[in-house]
Q: What sequence folds into this?
């Protein structure tokens, strides 16, 4: 294929939440980005998705959270694990300790607008159909035969990723064993009648939750595992509701209808050469706990600054490989917890007994807190080697003398928090900001944050700091 000079540094296949977030993260570092999206229009369904604490923190870090809050509804950060209702554990370690429910199309629009504002190009109606990589870059072929050249290609093209398939990366895991119908629609019976039936039916994969204005979110087991080529219809919902509840509640006027399975699969590799995978293209799992989109957005923030450094020619050796090393285990953990949640939702007597036991155990604050932190992704600790517990974790938003800590991270640069007032960022000042005497709240002398907000170093020794600056940010300037 063509090996003419690259017009773009990075081509992203897919303008879903992962692709749009990645484009914006790359633009923070002036990377020339083109996003190719196969659909001509943005998504039409109005599925409400939940943004969990870590994603809200990332949006706050990039100065985006207020835009999202204006379009969403805040709910308590609780009741996620297998939908077992429990209260929010007190004193959750975040300034953004809630769930933000927001329609997925709105979320996608806001992320895309942000990427475009920062200078990303988005071309709709362009499906990636092929590519070939060589030592200098990647030639990307569109379905219409057009060829484009870039230095890197990232497949953010969802569960059925063309990029993943063409790359030949294995996607092992378990096929779907059960399928569930989920949708939003109006019911034709009084709310009391709905509530009485919901209380009576003991099927865990069944609910009708009022959204206001007579609209309900409805979940009901599908009849069997289908080939999923055809989207579900309102009649499918009626039939399954009658099978489970003895009535179809007079459902009508659907807003959106979907079917999801409990397949769990994880890409064997996240990168081969100049081609990478992120979001659903790299991992799929049931939507229990509402984690998939969050996971993809967090992949994007982990990858963005590393790929930008690689493009800029200043990435330390193997920095780009830390993307898979850090994010694949996180996805593996999500696959595990969603699989566990699906088991707990089985109507079989064994899983039901385990569910009752777990429901009791979750009355212990530590158990409830552990599960909430897992689902909301604030418990992640990347393996940066030996060190204090905070090393490798994300730092919560705290007050600093210039305002809020996350306000300092909007440009996607590293940040040195220095209480010693004698540390310096030296030859890395073009990539890492320095905040002297940041706050009394911080009980360590010095702390280095990566652009994704994870703690990369703690200490007070300049030589040690320099070694860590080089590890994460490459050679010093000059
Ligand atoms: C019923 C249900 C409820 C859910 N609820 C939640 C929730 O509450 N919270 C949560 O975190 N997650 C939830 N999810 C999961 C979430 O929707 C996905 O994880 C998320 O959309 C993945 O984002 P993505 O950008 O990686 O992939 P996608 O959203 O699938 O986006 C991929 C994009 O790539 C495009 N594309 C595909 N092929 C090509 C190609 N060849 N060339 C160019 N473009 C291409 C597609 O058109 C699409 O726009 C739910 C899922 C379901 C089914």
A:
């Amino acid at each position: 294929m063509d090996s003419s000079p690259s017009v773009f540094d990075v081509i992203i296949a897919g303008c879903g939440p992962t692709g749009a977030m990645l484009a914006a993260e790359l633009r923070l570092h002036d990377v020339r980005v083109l996003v190719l999206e196969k659909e001509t229009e943005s998504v039409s369904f109005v599925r409400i998705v939940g943004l969990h604490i870590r994603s809200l923190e990332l949006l706050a870090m990039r100065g985006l959270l207020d835009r999202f809050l204006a379009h969403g509804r805040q709910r308590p950060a609780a009741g996620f694990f297998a939908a077992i209702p429990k209260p929010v554990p007190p004193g959750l370690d975040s300034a953004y300790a809630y769930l933000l429910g927001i329609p997925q199309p709105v979320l996608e629009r806001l992320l895309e607008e942000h990427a475009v504002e920062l200078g990303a190009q988005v071309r709709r109606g362009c499906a990636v159909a092929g590519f070939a990589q060589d030592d200098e870059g990647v030639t990307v072929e569109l379905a219409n035969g057009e060829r484009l050249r870039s230095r890197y290609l990232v497949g953010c093209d969802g569960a059925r990723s063309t990029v993943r398939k063409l790359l030949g990366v294995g996607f092992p895991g378990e096929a779907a064993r059960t399928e569930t119908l989920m949708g939003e629609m109006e019911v034709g019976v009084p709310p009391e009648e709905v509530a009485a039936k919901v209380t009576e039916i003991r099927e865990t994969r069944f609910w009708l939750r009022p959204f206001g204005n007579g609209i309900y979110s409805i979940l009901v087991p599908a009849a069997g595992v289908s080939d999923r080529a055809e989207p579900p219809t309102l009649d499918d919902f009626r039939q399954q509701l009658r099978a489970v509840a003895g009535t179809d509640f007079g459902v009508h006027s659907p807003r959106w209808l979907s079917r999801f399975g409990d397949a769990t699969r994880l890409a064997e590799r996240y990168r081969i050469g100049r081609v990478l995978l992120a979001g659903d293209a790299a991992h799929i799992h049931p939507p229990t706990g509402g984690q998939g989109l969050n996971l993809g957005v967090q992949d994007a923030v982990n990858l963005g600054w590393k790929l930008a450094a690689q493009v800029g020619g200043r990435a330390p050796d193997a920095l780009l490989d830390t993307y898979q090393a850090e994010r694949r285990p996180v996805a593996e953990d999500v696959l595990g917890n969603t699989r566990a949640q699906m088991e707990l939702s089985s109507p079989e007597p064994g899983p039901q007994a385990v569910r009752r036991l777990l429901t009791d155990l979750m009355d212990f604050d530590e158990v409830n807190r552990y599960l909430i932190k897992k689902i909301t992704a604030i418990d992640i600790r990347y393996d940066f080697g030996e060190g204090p517990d905070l090393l490798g974790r994300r730092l919560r938003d705290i007050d600093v003398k210039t305002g809020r800590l996350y306000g300092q991270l909007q440009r996607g640069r590293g940040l040195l928090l220095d209480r010693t007032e004698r540390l310096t960022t030296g030859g890395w000042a073009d990539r890492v900001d320095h905040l002297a005497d940041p706050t009394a709240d911080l009980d360590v002398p010095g702390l280095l944050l990566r652009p994704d907000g994870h703690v990369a170093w703690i200490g007070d020794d300049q030589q040690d700091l320099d070694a860590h600056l080089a590890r994460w940010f490459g050679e010093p300037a000059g």
User: Anything to note?
Assistant: The mean pLDDT is 93. The first helix runs from residue 17 to 27. The chain has twelve helices and 24 strands. The two ends are 39 Å apart (CA to CA).
